[in-house]
Amino acid sequence: MTERALTRRALIAGAGTAALAAPAVASLSGMIDLGLPGGPSLRPTTPDFPGKSGMIVQRIRPPLLEAPMAVFREGTITPNAQHFVRWNWAMPTEVKAGAHRVAVGGAVGKPVSLTLDQIAAAGEQLSIVAVNQCAGNGRGLSQPRVTGTQWGNGAMACAKWTGVRLRDVLALAGDIAPQARRVRFAGLDVPLTDGAPQFIKSVPMDIALRDDVLVAWAMNDEPLSILHGFPLRIVVPGWFSTYWVKMLSTIEVLTGEDESHYMAETYRFPTAPVAPGDKDFPTVPITAMPPRSFITSHADGDTVALGEPVTLEGFAFGGDCGVERVDLVGKGWEIPCELGPQEHGPYAFRRWRLTLPQVAGDLAEIGVRAANTKGAVQPDALVWNPSGYARNVIERITLRAS
Ligand SMILES: Nc1nc2c(c(=O)[nH]1)N[C@H]1C(S)=C(S)[C@@H](COP(=O)(O)O)O[C@H]1N2
Ligand SMILES: [Mo]
């Protein structure tokens, strides 16, 4: 529940029209090195996207903005100004809340077209803190390299999402047909090239009806910005954000499999290990996130004082459940880390820390390894796949003692 006295009306009606000024390519402000193996690794940063600051520009239009890793040093909630942005196609740069409708149709008793007020009144309002992570997060670090947006690890963020349950919105459209299999979402964005597929995604019925899958209008107590999908987006805690459709305009109950492009052709993961060049192997859609963890107190190549204690800090997330444990691992050794409180529930970032009593020499290739409460553990070696999806290999750094 929201602590602040933000009513659903204030959130939606108060937002009125959201618009996005075009960013100026001219005023790129600095460069950041993403450390991508073999390069090119430098990316510009810009202050020029509205509501954003210090973001790494992967692409201007449609926008792809990445958070510098330093953002994650602070807290377990990522500020909206540093929340990564990803659009497959161009999104409208202005959306009028009063005119917006969400069509709910397909295999339902009574197809409806809902206003924002009707959606906000569909059921209990609730807030859930959850990690929003692109399925391609960290893809640029793949070795061998793969095609697609060359993200470092900054295509992730943790935020508090506020809205109503998807199942309460579905209920406004009458009875769901007994043969219903999936629920598909579309937004207002349209392909830039003729004949290209629209970005639509679907989840199985049991996921759609979950207690915590939202039609959300707020992110960290602010109305969703245009970049994050004003006025409404889907939130599926624990699942990669490819399913978190923004600028939601259509909800469709399907009775069969979903053969649309972004379900049947892409965002899929091999069912067994593959090597570069392999073809025609079976795949399944990318769905739930595996656990990940990061060191934020130090970066690769940092110096630590020889003979002194050193405190390492960072954060972890369990993926589709909570974090069970985090270990610092070196070459042939491991030490359990102290976990911070699970302050925001199982789907959020969680802090860890560890003090080593005395630095005896270089800390070569150290990393942290998270295990989640369902028993999934981060692997030692990259599970390579041709699209670089679902990276969760232990990320290693070396600290020099002197
Ligand atoms: N309408 C729409 N929703 C979308 C997308 C899109 O292209 N269009 N991209 C998805 C993908 S792949 C990601 S990673 C997340 C990014 O969410 P964010 O920009 O709020 O961080 O939005 C998802 N929802
Ligand atoms: Mo994504």
Q: Would you mind describing this structure in some detail?
A:
The protein has 402 residues and is mainly beta. Helix content is 6%, strand content 34%. The N and C termini lie far apart (49 Å). Mean pLDDT is 93; it is low at 1-11 and 23-27. It contains five helices and 28 strands. It is globular, with a radius of gyration of 21 Å. It has three domains: 3-86, no CATH class; 94-132 and 157-285, Alpha-Beta Complex (Sulfite Oxidase, Chain A, domain 2); 292-401, Immunoglobulin-like, CATH 2.60.40.650. It has a five-stranded antiparallel β-sheet, with no helix packed on it. The chain has a five-stranded mixed β-sheet with strand order 9-8-17-12-13. Molybdenum atom binds next to loops. GO terms for molecular function: heme binding; molybdenum ion binding; molybdopterin cofactor binding; sulfite oxidase activity. It comes from Erythrobacter neustonensis. This is Oxidase. Pfam families: Mo-co_dimer, Oxidored_molyb. Residues 286-399 form the Moybdenum cofactor oxidoreductase dimerisation domain.
